[in-house]
Amino acid sequence: MKTMRNILIPLIIGLSAGAAHAEDGALATFKALKPEVALDLAQAALKACRDAGFQVAVAVTDRAGVTQVILRDQLAGSHTPETARRKAWTAASFRTDTMTMMKETQAGKEQSGVRFVRDALMIGGGVPVTAAGSMVGAVGVSGAPGGDQDEKCAKAGIAAIEERLLFE
Fold first, then answer.
1. Residue range 16-28, pLDDT digits in tens
2. Which of 41, 67, 84, 165 could be a cystine partner for 142, CB 3.0 to 4.6 Å?
């Protein structure tokens, strides 16, 4: 019992000290993309790929990786909506773009084990969406001939709504 007390007392003191530095109140507040903005982002990414001659699917998630929008061009492959969703989920979940994740999780790298996380997809085309230094969502694109092209379309979608994000 004495050992348990020796562990719990410092733990409680440490947690109390950390709480003093936290925001006041019991609830957190955060920003997220409105559905209309998520749709505009998806449409802009889809258009960027169409303009480049690619038929793709685009998925936009909220900051937690929950899908807000999925669009599939009429000739995009049947696998592309799910692939786009998983790219967006991965970018949201790991809070980094999937092109970086692809490079940093290759076999032999220290972080290679995260490739086994369910639904994680380490292929270029997933990009976090940030506003005022906070992640507010993510976008994933699938169907262009390579992850680098998917990523360009995703970034074009973000650029199309960027000005709206700056004033939030």
1. 444 444 557 899 8
2. 84
Predicted local distance difference test score (pLDDT) of residue 167: 72
* pLDDT for the residue 43: 98
**In sequence order, what are the residues at sequence separation of 6 or more whose Cβ sits closer than 8 angstroms to the Cβ of residue 30?**
63, 134
Per the domain annotation, does 85 fall within a domain? yes
Q: Tell me the residue range of the domain where 144 lies.
A: 35-166
Q: Is 53 helix (H, G, I), strand (E, B) or coil?
A: coil
Q: Is residue 13 part of a domain?
A: no
Q: What is the CATH number of the domain that holds 110?
A: 3.30.450.150
Q: Are 69 and 81 in contact (CB under 8 A)?
A: no
**What is the SS3 assignment for 127?**
strand
Q: Is 134 helix (H, G, I), strand (E, B) or coil?
A: strand
User: Which parts of the chain sit beneath pLDDT 50?
Assistant: 1-21
Q: CB–CB of 98/121 below 8 Å?
A: yes
Contact 88, 141 (CB under 8 A): no
Alpha-carbon span 120 to 101, nearest angstrom: 10
Residue type, 41: L
What are all long-range contacts of 73-79, with beta carbons under 8 Å and residues at least 24 apart?
A: 73/46, 73/49, 73/143, 76/142, 76/143, 77/143, 79/142
Structural domain contains residue 1? no
